[in-house]
Amino acid sequence: MHIRTGRPLPRQRVVASLAIAVALSLALAACGGSSKSKSSSGGGSNAKVTLRLGYFPNVTHAPAIIGVENGSFASKLGSNVKLELQTFNSGSEATTALLAGAIDASFVGPNPAINAYQKTNGDIRVVAGTASGGAYFVVKPSINSAADLKGKKIGTPGAGNTQDVALRTWLNKNGLHETKDGGDVTIVPEENSVSLTAFQSGAIDGAWVPEPWATRLVTEGGGKVLVDEKTLWPKGQYVTTLLMVKREFLDKHPRVIHNLISGLADSIALIRSNPTEAKKLVGAGILKVTNKPLKPSLIDASFSNILFTLDPIASSLQTNADNAKALGYLKSSDLGNIFQLTTLNNVLKERGEPPVKS
User: What confidence tier does 39 reach under pLDDT thresholds 50, 70, 90?
Assistant: First the structure.
């Protein structure tokens, strides 16, 4: 009768208790394993992650600046991700920080990304674009052609920098045979602000620079545009700024990078829907970093010369690598697996936008 009523005998009670304990232990172990898996992938609700992100106080990094200033990055990343920011003045600085383990990701130009990929033996990934266009070769009014550049001094943001490679490649194609050192034209690698001062004083005769420096060389230095770089590219499209991430961080925290790209997409959407607000945010962000205000008219002019896009324009990155190799900056132009655009395309799909190709 006792057994039929379900009341266990003492021994049966012990066995039942053990069975329940084992079942609970197995369930907890399973939950623990699942939680660990989500945490390591950056997708767990309780995962605590620090993302160390770099960017430049340049108009060509406008979507990054907007994402910082209006909080869209922080909002998309969520409360479990601590965002630590570092700003740089050049791609070489950002690459050095990445190689030293000081940052996990950064907005940079194409050539610094290529250099980082090769110096880390393929341990970085390009996960999104940011900007296309906005680079110009500005010269003194007396210079009208490549032939007029013989014996002149020309500035670039840095040796091996994206604009530096563009200038040297263009000179070579125009018969001036400029390579890494020497040649018909003296190349002066220096910070963009230094190039502006040098151009104004006559110490250099021109510079191949990104916005807003190109416009400043024209408006403040009395220069003129000799080459708009977009005229050298198919359909006028080439990557100026992109987002690179350490492969290890991407592998461990894919959801964090997904959310970062989503915040970047919001920034670009704001530029298109409310350019006035976007420009104010960029001006405020640059002032905060540099302590130097950028005239609204200068930001306006720069915006009109740049296409802000999530597409990294992969074919142009390969051309940049080929050109850098031809100049002796790279031993190989093989970009292997530098692109990981699955995450970007997932973001685009969520937003109802077409995918991009690597």
Answer: very low
Residue at 217: amino acid letter: L
Residue pLDDT, tens place only, 85-134? 999 988 889 999 999 999 999 999 999 999 999 999 999 999 999 999 99
- How many domains does the chain contain in total? 2
Q: Does residue 43 belong to any structural domain of this protein?
A: no
280 C-beta neighbours (distance < 10 Å), count: 16
Instruction: Give the domain extent around 161.
Output: 135-235
**C-alpha dihedral, 242 to 65 to 133 to 127, nearest 10°:** 20
Q: List C-alpha distances in Å: 327 to 136, 181, 206.
A: 20, 10, 21
Full 3-state SS string of 219-255? HCCCCEEEEEHHHHCHHHCCEEEEEEEEHHHHHHCHH
- Whether the model clears a pTM of 0.85, i.e. scores above it, the answer is no
pLDDT tens digits for 246-296?
Answer: 999 999 999 999 999 999 999 999 999 999 999 999 999 999 999 999 999
CB 248 within 8 A of CB 121: no
Q: What are phi and psi of 45, to 5 degrees?
A: -65, -25
Same domain, 155 and 221: yes
